[in-house]
Amino acid sequence: MTDSTKAIVTLTSGKLEGIEKKGLFTFKGIPYAEPPVGSKRWRPPEPVQAWADIRQAKTFAPVAPQNAGAVSIIDTAAETANQNEDCLYLNVWTPGLDDKKRPVMVWIHGGGFQGGAGSISRYTGKHLAARGDVVVVTINYRLGALGFLNLNEITGGQIPATGNEGLLDQTMALTWVRDNIAAFGGDPGNVTIFGESAGGMSVGILLAFPPARGLFHKAICQSGAASTVFSPSIAKRVAALFLEAAGLKATDPAALRSLAIDQMLAAQAILPQKTWRSELKITMPFSLVADGRVLPEMPLTAIAKGSSQSVPLLVGTTQEEWKLFGAMEPDLAQKEEADIMRRLGRIMPADAASVLYETYKTERGRRGESTAPAEIFSAIQTDRTFGIPACRLLEAQAKQNSNVFSYLFTWKSPALKGKLGACHALDIGFVFRTLDYVFTGKKPEAVTLSEKIQDAWIAFARTGNPACDSLGGWPPYGEKRETMFLGPECKIVREPFAEELRVWDRMSPEVLGML
């Protein structure tokens, strides 16, 4: 099956040659599906065809078409410059090409469903693979309009895209893992999917996705849950606004099929402005769609019914997620209370905004935290977008499986003189041990925390429980909402932020943005 001295493996589709360095084998740019181009645009992915010669897997493949990132501190524009609609590739890091049956960890990248790639250097799998004796896989999938735009409704089925093509790509990658990962020393019967932001949301929704059932056995959601799903009516409205941005009509599907990538990206760039200014009030216009066929029902509903009842689950967020997005608004810190209340009133009913604001102001003051209006806004948005959806997912799965665990990442970024706090995406460098001096910090304390988090993620992938020697015990999420705080001090906290959670329990789903 393998030739470890030459880093050659035999897959179901042919032979592949990678790179061996210091006992670690790396394979880059492996195709897991046929290129979704031409007549295959906006169609479900198809299995990759076999090749005759030994295929080289020593360089990363093109990434999905996307616009440059908007946040410079984590901007990956240089790493995503090589773009092509032919983008369905994955990468593998493994300690051995043998029959050891190591746990497999499949990373699904974030980026708002319209950016990112599995080849970004923050996601290199070499440190995780070496530390834990696990096989790490990172994947690309279709993004933006190519992967998450429902065109079926608005074109009357002439273009049958459901808006879940990107999720079908992820599922095809997991199918490839099932069929081929043993050649890389991995165990196809012990696969953990993990991802952050849109990747974490993908993981949460895969728990409820019928085509993915049985393709993974454990799941980790980082800053993403299972609530970011559009109804068919909202998806149709988003599609109409996209067509308007592209200058196209639903009655001309041929023009859509032949739309140039640069024109598509130009339309994607202005779509968030259109969806925000519309009645939808949506700033992230690409998402999964509960279309009633590919994704039969809202994921939380399916999960609560037991769609993945045998799957252990680890879910968490960073403590100050929204501060990364707030950094794009330099004047936010100067906003007065009236300004913040008006802003909250644009995304939720005024009475809900008032109750939330007063609750957060009182509770933050009681804990000795800042009650500046911008800080309260950031805390509310952190919970509205990430924290409460995480709780809802934990609650739904805990009814089905006792191996459900919660965490809160509390380490603060040193960037911008500490203004980012424990912000969105900060935890990624700690999971992969790709720390830097600017964003994550690289002091010995940061390295120690990274090692503890890696050990916990590896333990979870191996056993379904994140408890480990370096971090200690980690009780399941139960009635006391036991949560591991991961930061300068790692500790279990029971019933964290109880009053904030209680006030959200009284809010309607619309206030939470669960559309």
Describe this structure as you would to a colleague.
This protein is of the alpha/beta class and 515 residues long. It folds into two domains: 288 residues, Rossmann fold (3-Layer(aba) Sandwich), CATH 3.40.50; 201 residues, 3-Layer(aba) Sandwich (Rossmann fold), CATH 3.40.50. It is built from 16 helices and 17 strands. The strands form three sheets. Strands 4-5-7-9-8-10-11-14-15-16-17 form an eleven-stranded mixed sheet, sandwiched between helices. β10, α4 and β11 form a beta-alpha-beta unit. α10 packs across α11. It is globular, with a radius of gyration of 22 Å. The model has no long low-confidence stretch (mean pLDDT 95).
The order of strands across the largest sheet is: 4-5-7-9-8-10-11-14-15-16-17
Q: Determine the N-to-C terminus distance.
A: 48 Å
Instruction: Report the CATH superfamily of the largest domain.
Output: Alpha/Beta hydrolase fold, catalytic domain
Helix count, DSSP H or I runs of 4 or more residues: 16
Portion of residues in beta strands equals 15-25%
Morphology call: globular
CATH C-level label of the largest domain:
Alpha Beta
- Rg, Cα atoms, Å: 22 Å
User: How many individual domains?
Assistant: 2
Number of strand segments: 17
Q: How does the major sheet shape up?
A: 11 strands, mixed
Unreliable stretches, pLDDT < 50, 5 or more residues? none
Helix content: 25-40%
Look at the structure and give the mean pLDDT.
95
The CATH architecture of the largest domain: 3-Layer(aba) Sandwich
What is the fold-level CATH name, i.e. the topology of the largest domain?
A: Rossmann fold
